[in-house]
Design a protein that fits this description.
- This protein is α+β, with helices and mostly antiparallel strands.
- The chain has 2 domains: 36 residues, no CATH class; 120 residues, no CATH class.
- It contains 6 helices and 3 strands; from the N terminus they run αβββααααα.
- Strands 1-2-3 form a 3-stranded antiparallel sheet, with no helix packed on it.
- A hairpin with a 5-residue loop joins strand 2 and strand 3.
- Helix 3 packs across helix 6, helix 4 crosses helix 5 and helix 5 crosses helix 6.
- It is elongated and about 70 Å long.
- The two termini are 24 Å apart.
């Protein structure tokens, strides 16, 4: 399907999953064939489980590195904020490319929900891992800064696992 054809696709739920339905017609307008393409645009509870698995998969080795601990201590708050914003922006582009592509207009709410939940789950797992390894400490600012650094790569692993299913 070309991008112009995809934008005119109808959407229908088949077997509980959303599909794009594209009718192929000849020059006279007669129906030749119908093509269905499963879409993974709806964010469901099972996606949270997949995000958790992916966040743990990448978060564990990253949270165990001394570089993360030192960067969390030494980077100024402005840089940490830039890392967090860049992480969310790149994550949004990554999710758009994996899940939504030419269907973003029809599923904007699901897109924003997936990006928000993906980052929050990953950030939460990052904080949890740092606390388990004794590197979150009692300084909330330091824990958040370290978690932002761990969440950057872990968010992409989480979304990749979610996509692979």
């Amino acid at each position: 399907m070309t991008s112009a054809e995809e934008s005119r696709a109808a959407y229908r739920r088949i077997g509980g999953q959303m599909h794009a339905i594209q009718e192929i017609r000849d020059e006279a307008g007669r129906l030749i064939d119908t093509v269905t393409k499963p879409l993974k645009v709806e964010f469901r509870l099972r996606d949270v489980g997949q995000l958790l698995a992916g966040a743990f998969m990448m978060g564990i080795p990253v949270a165990l590195t001394e570089e993360v601990w030192v960067l969390g201590e030494t980077l100024p708050p402005g840089r940490i904020l830039l890392i967090a914003l860049l992480s969310i922006l790149v994550l949004a582009l990554f999710i758009w490319g994996l899940f939504y592509g030419g269907h973003i207009a029809e599923f904007k709410f699901d897109f924003f929900k997936r990006v928000t939940v993906s980052y929050l789950v990953t950030f939460g797992i990052s904080l949890l891992l740092l606390a388990l390894f004794g590197k979150a400490g009692f300084n909330l600012s330091l824990a958040i800064r370290r978690a932002v650094i761990v969440a950057f790569p872990a968010a992409f692993a989480a979304s990749s696992v979610d996509f692979m299913k």
